[in-house]
Automatic annotation (TrEMBL):
Organism, scientific name: Desulfobacca acetoxidans (strain ATCC 700848 / DSM 11109 / ASRB2)
Name of the protein this chain belongs to: Transport-associated protein
Pfam families with a match to the protein in the record: Cytidylate_kin2
SUPFAM superfamilies (alphabetical): P-loop containing nucleoside triphosphate hydrolases
Annotated InterPro entries: BON_dom, P-loop_NTPase
Amino acid sequence: MAILAVSREYGSGGREIGRRLAARLGYAYVDKERLFQDLDHRGKRWGRAARELDEVCPTLWERHDWQYQGYISLVESLILDYAVQDRVVLIGRGAVILLQGVPFCLKVRLTAPLEVRVERVMLEESLDREAAAQLITRVDQDRACYLQTNYSKVWNDAGNYDLVLNTGRLGYDQTVELLLAALAEKESLATPGARDRLADLALACRLKARLATDSRILAPTLKVRLDDGGAIIVSGVIHTPKEMQLVQEIAGEVCGSKALQFDLKRR
């Protein structure tokens, strides 16, 4: 089956549309609350970080902080693991960017005119017009900054998406119907090769998260990527032979028999 990844302006109805579509198809629905629960299970530190840092614009200090990098890596790993399980609606958190190379993922941006969004937020959050407008501006700016900071992508660039839908014009019901039709067209692209590639990508993200959250490793330059041939490459600068050995041991533990390459340099 195809996967749906949704990016949404605040007040465009992303949550409601995502829930309706998930219910129609019997898909899992993964939004911040689902991810918060998952991160709680990883430890109180990560659940607390999620509630403080979720889709907000990080400060300069946070961008280089070990905990922030670990948090982002864990979120990425969770999103990719859900994608591998299939039949899922993923809301926000950079899922559209993380799944750019997955042909059977429908990548959608939901928008609506500001006045429509203000009316919706006033109703949903019991706010007056001015407060609703201010909240929309702040949330949208945070989401744009989150994507730019972590993935160097422009949030409202239509080139990131398969579809850009105006829910103010279409309404929720018609938007859901259009998404159902578009997902059906994507299903034929879920070939065994494409699924294997996604599984390898998820494995690379799992290793990245493991390394980024291990307090014994103090190597902020470590990177993990999947090359075109399917090998997982770990690169960066490490400080000691012991740290290099630890990185290699963790990579072997996480990846098992998967092809691994190391490009680790000593400082």
